[in-house]
Amino acid sequence: MERLEGKPTENDSFDAHDRGLCLMAVMDHTGDFRLTWDPLSTTDVAKAKAEFNRLRKAGYTAYRLNIIDPKVKGAEATSFSRWDGELIMEFEELPQDVPSEVVMSPAMQGG
Fold first, then answer.
1. Tally of domains in the chain
2. Most exposed among 4, 6, 22, 61, judged by the fewest C-beta atoms under 10 Å?
3. Which residues pair with 105 in a beta bridge?
4. pTM over 0.85
5. Is 110 a domain residue?
């Protein structure tokens, strides 16, 4: 399980899926970080679930992304809504034993 800070790297969401990994993209005061885990590793899944629960307790909202074809890149990606997703409340709402993506967003605050 790896945590990646800042800008997309070789471990971005498409490549994570190509490698059979799950991805949690977390927005925070530093910008964002990405957490990848192997859905077949009980240790990785437990760590990802703990981070998910920690963020939810801190007021983050979780969105599961509906991955239609993770290998589609570039202009072809406009032919479907890859970023279509839905609000989830529990880690168990993510697909189990297969690559998946979740976006964690902090609560909005007025100024």
1. 1
2. 6
3. 61
4. no
5. no
